[in-house]
Amino acid sequence: MAKEIIRPTCLQARPNTFCPGCMHSMAIKLVAQCLEELEIADKSILVCAVGCGTMAMNAFDVDMVSAAHGRAPAVATGIKRTQPDTFVFTYQGDGDLAAIGLSEIMYAANRGEKISTVFVNNSTYGMTGGQLAPTTLVGQKSTTTPLGRDPERDGYPVDMCKLLSQLQAPSYIARCALNSPANIRKAKEAIKKAFQYQLEGKPFAFVELLSNCVTNWNMAPMDSLKHIETVTSQVFPLGVFRDVNEGV
Which residue, 125, 32, 40, is CA-closest to 85? Predict the structure, then answer.
């Protein structure tokens, strides 16, 4: 029998405001499902960053704070330290987290702050016009690199999971993709584990979700999902980079 899908009560009953085909909406649904299944929505505080992820504020029905560009981990740190019984998480994109917010996320992770971060990586500045982002792939065209990313001029894509996994404090670091039903199920499992670790008092947990940007990639939605499989995930391999419970 087909399973009935019920909207999590911590999601607003309204249409999402993302571009058609954007998987940010799927990421938000997975987060909401995890909050509901863990029964923590009513004690959660979401710290939203600047970028497409800001539109999560139109979707969730939980307490939220909007942080300045890149500063979500710092704001989340202050909230968690002053309200340790509150569940605190950030929802950030690659332009926010891996660029202006790189120092913030690195030092929050290095201190082992007891917060969780959901990082949606679509390899571009999606909201502000498709400029080169830290995670833009070599050869990928953007509005600021119309001929494609050139490593000699622009450097190489930043791999946040590899960077953070070099630190001693984090308890969980994983990368998943939102391009297929099987990978979406794995993404939900990873988000739920990251959230559970915070509830257990474990330090910093981080889940990266490879997503698409149909508008700035100039691709049809299905083509963009295939691109995640054949191109993006080859540069940013999927998997668990740190799990204290598994000895990774």
Answer: 40
User: Which DSSP state fits 136?
Assistant: P
Q: In the CATH scheme, what is the homologous superfamily, with its name and number, of domain 24-243?
A: Thiamin diphosphate (ThDP)-binding fold, Pyr/PP domains (3.40.50.970)
**Chain segment 68-125, per-residue pLDDT in tens:** 999 999 999 999 999 999 999 999 999 899 999 999 999 999 999 999 999 999 999 9
Nearest residue to 221 (alpha-carbon basis) of 62, 80, 21: 21
Give 5's pLDDT tier (boundaries 50, 70, 90): confident
CA neighbor of 233 nearest in space, from 118, 122, 101: 122
If one counts every other C-beta atom within 10 angstroms of the C-beta of residue 180, the result is 13
- pTM over 0.90? The answer is yes
φ and ψ at residue 134, rounded to 5 degrees: -55, -30
The answer to whether the CB of 148 falls within 8 A of the CB of 141 is: yes
The secondary structure of 148-199 as a DSSP string is -B-HHHH-PPP-HHHHHHTSSS-SEEEEEESSSHHHHHHHHHHHHHHHHHHH
The percent of residues above 90 in pLDDT, for the chain, comes to 86
Interaxial angle between packed helices 181-199 and 24-37, expressed in degrees from 0 to 180 and rounded to the nearest 10: 50
- Torsion angles phi and psi, residue 202, rounded to 5: -80, 155
* 4 pLDDT above the threshold of 70: no
